[in-house]
Amino acid sequence: MANDLLRKIDNAVLDLQASQPQTYEGLLSKLAQLLRHADLEPYNQKLTDGVDLESFLSKDDDDSSFNDRSLRWTGDDDYDLGLKYLLIQKFADGRYASGFCHTYFYSSDRKIISSIHNMVRGLIIPFIRDYKDYVSVQGNTEIKLKSFSTIIDNKKIFIVHGHDDLVKVNVARFLEQNGFEPIILHEQASGNKTIIEKFEKYSDVGFAIVLLTPDDLGKAKDAEALEPRARQNVILELGFFMGKLGRDRVCAFNTGGLEIPSDFQGVVWNPLDNTGAWKQFLLKELVEAGYELDLKQVLLSM
Length: 302
Known about the structure:
By secondary structure, the protein is an alpha/beta fold. The protein is built from twelve helices and seven strands.
């Protein structure tokens, strides 16, 4: 239960960073509900004991002018953490959240969703980090929020790619920004090895990303039109890593319109797009596979 709960909390925060006006209310409600889980109740009771959120907010209103609205924390780490926990619970009411963020996390573009994103960066992400530390320090043996029980230490991630160098470089840079070591075969030393031997040597990774791009054309012998396909080596390496690492440690991306071999029809294909939404898909897959992510690094890399 603890591992699954952690995964859901981290995913909710990741989703909030990319939330839209139509989705942020539900995501805030979901995060508040996850933090109220029965496994966390003993910690929450201790954390909020004696914490008066309404008094804190009213004092802030009295001490601040309209043009100088900022949250004036007490300086007591545990008390302030309790205040933030209670605030997130109030955010379950989307109308309260929008008004609060407009007041304390105002965005120059005057969009509510921008204020929500400012609040996620300035309040929720630091809270989740400190909340995990708080619970971990309590020493409960049933739930350890510092890490998942099956954390993957291997930070090497193999990138299987075709001829689209821009996509390859973008993915590799994103991984580096989040503390991973991207492995691109042609960048590794050959050591007089054959391609297969070199591939086997450098496939000792914890995760693989497969980029299927329309580099080739092909068709069935009875078909008339040629269809865009990924390179044959990309399909081969996809199968190799699915067999070696398991499907839960392989993330496959493809562009629209690609012909997919029938043996891989059951695989979930994530879209490669120009807006960067693929980053959210990848982060979720990494968390699901057991990797710990630094939310501050994630934010800087988005």
